[in-house]
Amino acid sequence: MLISRKTVVIAGALSSVGRAIADQFARRGFSILLAGRDVDELKCLADDIKVRHEVSCSVRFFDALDFASHGGFLDQCVESFGNTPGGVVYCAGYMADQELAQMDFATAKRTLDTNLSGAVSLLEKFAALFEECGSGFIAALSSVAGDRGRKSNYIYGAAKAGLTAYLSGLRNRLYSANVQVITIKPGFMDTAMTWGMPLPAPLTASPEAAAKAMVKAILRGANVIYVPFFWRWIMMIIRYIPEWQFKKMNI
Ligand SMILES: NC(=O)c1ccc[n+]([C@@H]2O[C@H](COP(=O)([O-])OP(=O)(O)OC[C@H]3O[C@@H](n4cnc5c(N)ncnc54)[C@H](OP(=O)(O)O)[C@@H]3O)[C@@H](O)[C@H]2O)c1
């Protein structure tokens, strides 16, 4: 099977950073398939991308929680490009208020399912296709929150930790098939997800700056990246705090 190298599927394309990732790929001449739950809004975004970058841009409905639909969604992606896509970026995510997730299991489950189960369900399908073709890339937005559980967001953090471990194993599995798997761990980004939160400005990236770093990393074949880069060092320090001390911290 042939691979359309400069084609990419963005799942969760209406996320603040997903829009910016689409823009970065379009600047580089990629044909894009935008996938998400609001098809009208996706069409507006696609029109904007087509006008500004003169690339082909199509839209498809995608619900991360409708696992049974993911096989059909993959078929639609292949049909839309007329070929196997060159890569996929999983941007869908959900972070509820931590206390609500503690009290209400449905909220906790939605957090786990959107960030982890949905990614596993979809990306396994892309993995099988890319493995068969012997090329392709799979990128997903995990989070620094998955590097160590903290009381302020450990249910979301657990989902992202699972996603990080999943991507590590997938990278190991697909290495011999020449398929690239990129784990993206953003720190704070100024997006709809963090709206209203008191983010420390020097540690916070705009979605545009973050997307630029992410797409560059994908195209240079990175394995695991922190965005902005300094979060690698911050998280290294946080991981090294001994547990007897960490458990007492208000973090
Ligand atoms: N902002 C940060 O500081 C930060 C830090 C680390 C990691 N991240 C991760 O970065 C990714 C992008 O988030 P963001 O910051 O750009 O926030 P965002 O704008 O809130 O994006 C989240 C996106 O996920 C989509 N989504 C949620 N449930 C979905 C479902 N069932 N099916 C399909 N799409 C679904 C939402 O779609 P709708 O538009 O339909 O609601 C929304 O477009 C997420 O994975 C997030 O966890 C963010």
Tell me about this structure:
The chain is α/β, with parallel strands linked by helices. The chain has a single domain (7-246), classed as NAD(P)-binding Rossmann-like Domain (Rossmann fold, 3-Layer(aba) Sandwich), CATH 3.40.50.720. The protein is built from 9 helices and 9 strands. It has helices at residues 16-27, 39-53, 70-81, 98-103, 105-133, 154-174, 207-220, 231-240, 243-246, and strands spanning 7-11, 31-36, 57-61, 87-90, 137-141, 180-186, 188-189, 204-205, 224-227. The chain has a 7-stranded parallel sheet, with helices on both faces. A two-stranded parallel ribbon has the order 7-8. Strand 2 (31-36), helix 2 and strand 3 form a beta-alpha-beta unit. Residues 12, 14-17, 36-38, 62-65, 91-95, 114, 141, 143, 186, 188-189, 191-194 line the site of NADP nicotinamide-adenine-dinucleotide phosphate (NAP). The site of NADP nicotinamide-adenine-dinucleotide phosphate has 27 residues, from helix 1 and strand 7.
